[in-house]
User: Which sequence fits this backbone?
C-alpha cells in the first residue's frame, strides 16, 4: 500500500470502529466499576467489604482484599472520575498489550508503525471481551498487561521477571496459573519472585484488613454463586458448559485434569521450541477453561493466542492458518453466544451457546508453536540463551 493511501484507510478504520462501538454492541453501563466504587466507599466508611451488595442487584465485591487496597483511591473520586480513571487504565493496558503482542509482528513485517498500529488498535477494540472490559470497567486487561510484561522480562533476561504475574495473581486468582507455567518451564527464580510477590501482597492485605481477609479466604472465595449463576450463558468456561448440561461435579474435575494435562504437554513443547509467546498464550487459554467462572470479558486472556495464530497466518506455516486466524478473530467479535441467552437447550444451544468454550479448546489443542528464528525455518536445533550446542551434547 502506498503512503498516500494509508491515511484515508486508517481514518476510515478509526471512524468505522468508533461508529460500531457507539451503535452496535450492548453497553454495560460501567456495572463493575459501580460495584467496586460502592464497595470501596462503603468499606472506608466502616462497612464490611464482602457484605456490600450493589443496590438493585445481588452482586458485591468478589476479588481478594489486596485488590480492594489497590482500589482505595476510588474513595477520593466522584462517580464520573471513577469512570474516567477506569477508561484511562484500560486504554493504557491495551496499549501495553498491543506493544507486547502486535508490535513484534509489525516490526518483523516492516510495516509502517503508525499505520499498522492504528489498524491493530481498531482490531483490538472490536473484540467482544475488550468491548465488555471497557463498558463494564473491568480489570482483566490491566492484569493481562502485567503478565505479558513478565513474558517480555523473561525473554530479555530482566531480574524482575515474575513481579507482574505475582501482582496479577494477588489481585485475581486466575493469573496464578502463570506461576505454574514458570515452574513447568524451569524458571525457578521467576516463579519464586511471582509467588513471593503474591504472598507478600496477600499478607499485606491481611495486616491492613484482617477481617476482610478472613472473610474472603474462609468463605467468599469458595462461594461461586457470589459472581452469578454458573449456568448463565456468559460463563464460557468448562464449568459453565457442564453446568448448562447439568453434569455432575466429577465430570468437571475430569475435564479440568484433561485440560491441564494438554496444557502442560503443549506448554513444555512451546518452551522447548523457544516459543514463549505460544507458551504464555496456551496458559491464558487454559486459565479461561479451568476457572469455574469465565465471563466473556475474561476472554481477553485469549488475545495472545489470537496474535500467535495471526503470526502463523502471516508466515503461512501451514497454509490453513490464515483461515483459522480469521475465523477465530471473527468469532470472538461476534457476540454469538448471546443468541442463546434465554435458552441454551438443544443442539444449537450446545454448539452456539458454548461457542467461546469450543474456540478455547480448539486453540489449546491446535495453537501453532514454532521455533525461534533460525531454528524451525532452518532445521537447526534451538539452544536456550546462554547455552552452547556443545554444552547440551
Assistant:
Amino acid at each position: 500500500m502506498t503512503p498516500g493511501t494509508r491515511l484515508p484507510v486508517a481514518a476510515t478504520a478509526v471512524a468505522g470502529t468508533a461508529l460500531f462501538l457507539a451503535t452496535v454492541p450492548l453497553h454495560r453501563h460501567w456495572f463493575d466499576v459501580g460495584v467496586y466504587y460502592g464497595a470501596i466507599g462503603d468499606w472506608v466508611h466502616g462497612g464490611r467489604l464482602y457484605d456490600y451488595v450493589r443496590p438493585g442487584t445481588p452482586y458485591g465485591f468478589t476479588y481478594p482484599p489486596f485488590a480492594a487496597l489497590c482500589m482505595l483511591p476510588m474513595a477520593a473520586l466522584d462517580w464520573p472520575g471513577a469512570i474516567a480513571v477506569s477508561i484511562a487504565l484500560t486504554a493504557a493496558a491495551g496499549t501495553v498489550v498491543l506493544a507486547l503482542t502486535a508490535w513484534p509482528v509489525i516490526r518483523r513485517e516492516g510495516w509502517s508503525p503508525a499505520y499498522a498500529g492504528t489498524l491493530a488498535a481498531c482490531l483490538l477494540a472490536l473484540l467482544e471481551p475488550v468491548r465488555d472490559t471497557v463498558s463494564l470497567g473491568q480489570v482483566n486487561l490491566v492484569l493481562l498487561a502485567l503478565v505479558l510484561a513478565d513474558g517480555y522480562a523473561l525473554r530479555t533476561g530482566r531480574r524482575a521477571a515474575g513481579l507482574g504475574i505475582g501482582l496479577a495473581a494477588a489481585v485475581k486468582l486466575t493469573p496464578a496459573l502463570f506461576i505454574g507455567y514458570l515452574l513447568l518451564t524451569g524458571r525457578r527464580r521467576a516463579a519464586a519472585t511471582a509467588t513471593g510477590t503474591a504472598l507478600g501482597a496477600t499478607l499485606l492485605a491481611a495486616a491492613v484488613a484482617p477481617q476482610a481477609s478472613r472473610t474472603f479466604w474462609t468463605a467468599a472465595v469458595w462461594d461461586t454463586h457470589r459472581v452469578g449463576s454458573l449456568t448463565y450463558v456468559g460463563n464460557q468456561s468448562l464449568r459453565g458448559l457442564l453446568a448448562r448440561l447439568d453434569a455432575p461435579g466429577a465430570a468437571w474435575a475430569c475435564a479440568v485434569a484433561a485440560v491441564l494435562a494438554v496444557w502442560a504437554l503443549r506448554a513444555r513443547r512451546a518452551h522447548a521450541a523457544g516459543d514463549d509467546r505460544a507458551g504464555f498464550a496456551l496458559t491464558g487459554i487454559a486459565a479461561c477453561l479451568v476457572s469455574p467462572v469465565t465471563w466473556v470479558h475474561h476472554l481477553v486472556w485469549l488475545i495472545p493466542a489470537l496474535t500467535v495464530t495471526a503470526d502463523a497466518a502471516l508466515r503461512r506455516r501451514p497454509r490453513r492458518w490464515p483461515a483459522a486466524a480469521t475465523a477465530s478473530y471473527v468469532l470472538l467479535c461476534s457476540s454469538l453466544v448471546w443468541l442463546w441467552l434465554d435458552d441454551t437447550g438443544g443442539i444449537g444451544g450446545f454448539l452456539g451457546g458454548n461457542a467461546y468454550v469450543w474456540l478455547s479448546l480448539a486453540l489449546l489443542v491446535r495453537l501453532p508453536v514454532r521455533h525461534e528464528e533460525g531454528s524451525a525455518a532452518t532445521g537447526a536445533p534451538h539452544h536456550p540463551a546462554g547455552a552452547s550446542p556443545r554444552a547440551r551434547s
Remarks:
- Confidence is low (pLDDT under 50) at residues 372-393.
- Residues 79-109 form the longest helix (31 residues).
